[in-house]
Amino acid sequence: MTLLHPFCAWRPRCGLEQRVAAPPYDVLNSVEARRMADGVPESFLRVSKAEIDLDPAIPTHDPRVYAMARERFQALRAEGILVQDPAPWYYIYRLVMNGREQTGVAGVASVAAYLDERIKKHEFTRPDKENDRTRLSDTLDAHSGPVFLTHRHDPTIKRLTEAWMAAHQPVYDFVANDQVQHSVWTVDDPAVIDGLRSAFDRLPALYIADGHHRAAAASRVHLARRTTDPNPEALHGYFLAVTFPDTQVRILDYNRVVRDLNGLDATQLLARIATIPRLTVLPSDQPVRPASRHEFGMYLKNQWFRLKVALEPDRERDPVQRLDVTILQDRLLHPILGIADPRQDHRIDFVGGIRGLEALTQRVDSGEMAVAFSLFPTALDELMAVADAGEVMPPKSTWFEPKLRDGLLVQTF
C-alpha cells in the first residue's frame, strides 16, 4: 500500500504565493482572520475561514459559511489565482524558523492506510471540529489544509530531496508575517517521483503530528463517497499531507491554565498538593520552565513554584502513564481541581509554548485564570511510542512549530 502519492496540486500563481498563503484555520479566531485578510482579496482565509466575508452575527458553522467557502475557492481558480499542475508531482516543503530548518515531502496520503492504522494517530478528535472540517472538505470537493505527518528518518528520502533542492530553484520562497520562511520545490522528474514513492512504500508507518481533525474528516468524506464511487484509486481516497523526518520535527510545551481553584483558596490548594505522593513542591524566585521530564511549573497568586514527581517504575514503563500531561492530569488537575474531562471542561484552557511563560502569568494576573502550569515538552519518541501501542495521549499534549500554510498546495477530488 502506497502511503504517500504524488498529485496534481492547485497552487498560487507565482508571485501571488505570499498573498494567498494563510495560517492554519485553527490557530486564529474569526476576528484575527478578518483583520489579517483585510485588503488581501486573494487570502486563503476567505476559504478556510469564510465567515470573515459574512455578517459577524452569522454562526461559524452556518450553511452560508460553507457556501461562501465554495464560492471563494471557485473564484480563486476561475480568476487564475490558483492554477493546477499538469501531472501528479511531489512537492518539497522547507520551513525555516529562527535559523532552524525542517524539510518535508508533500503529497496525498492514503485514507486506506489511515483506516488500517499504518498512518497512526495519537489523540482523539473533538466532534464539533471534525464535523466542521468534514463539511468544508465535502463542500469544496477539496482538502486545503495539509496534515502534518512525521516518519522515522529514511536515508533514501533524505538523499533524493537534498539532491533535488541542490539542483533546482524553489517555485516559492518567502517569509510570512510570523517570520517563518516557506520554500516549495516541484518534483516533476518521473525517476525521482518513483524513487520517493518506493521509499515511502518501504516505511513501516507515518505518524500524524498535527491535523487529526483534518485526517478524520478526510476519512469520513471518503467513506461517504465510495458508496457511489467505489474505485479504489478515486481521488477522495487520499488527503493532503506533508511528512517530515523525525530528526527534524520540533515539539514545544503545551501549557495549562485553570479558571478557578475548585472551591479552594491558594493556601488550601498548596496544602492539597503537598499530600500528593512522590511529589515535591518548592517556591521559585523565577518563572519555571521545566528542564526535564516529570518537572512542572505552577503560577499562583504572583508566585511561581517548582513541582517534581518521582514516577513509580511500573508507570514509567507505560507509554501513556509516563507522559507529563498524564501525570499532571491524573494527580492534580482531576483529583484536586476537578477537571475530569479536559476535552470538554470549559474551566481549563491550553497555551502553546510559542507564546512563552509570559502568556501564563498574564492570564493569571489579569484575573481571567486562577492558576497556570508549565510543562516540559513531550518528546517525539514518546508520541511514536503511544501511537505504536495503539493508545492515545491526553488532549493538547503537543504543540508543533512552525506551522504549515494553507493554500500553498490544494488537493481536489
What does this structure look like?
This protein is an alpha+beta fold and 413 residues long. It has 14 helices and 21 strands. The two termini are 20 Å apart.
List key phrases describing it.
nine-stranded mixed β-sheet, six-stranded antiparallel β-sheet, 2 domains, alpha+beta, single chain, 413 residues, Conserved hypothetical protein from pyrococcus furiosus pfu- 392566-001, domain 2
Helix percentage: 25-40%
Strand content: 15-25%
> In one word, what is the shape?
globular
Uncertain runs: none
Structural domain count: 2
End-to-end separation in angstroms reads 20 Å
Count of DSSP H/I helices? 14
Number of strands: 21
Give the biggest beta sheet: 9 strands, mixed
The helix/strand class is: alpha+beta
What radius of gyration results from the CA coordinates?
22 Å
The mean pLDDT is 96
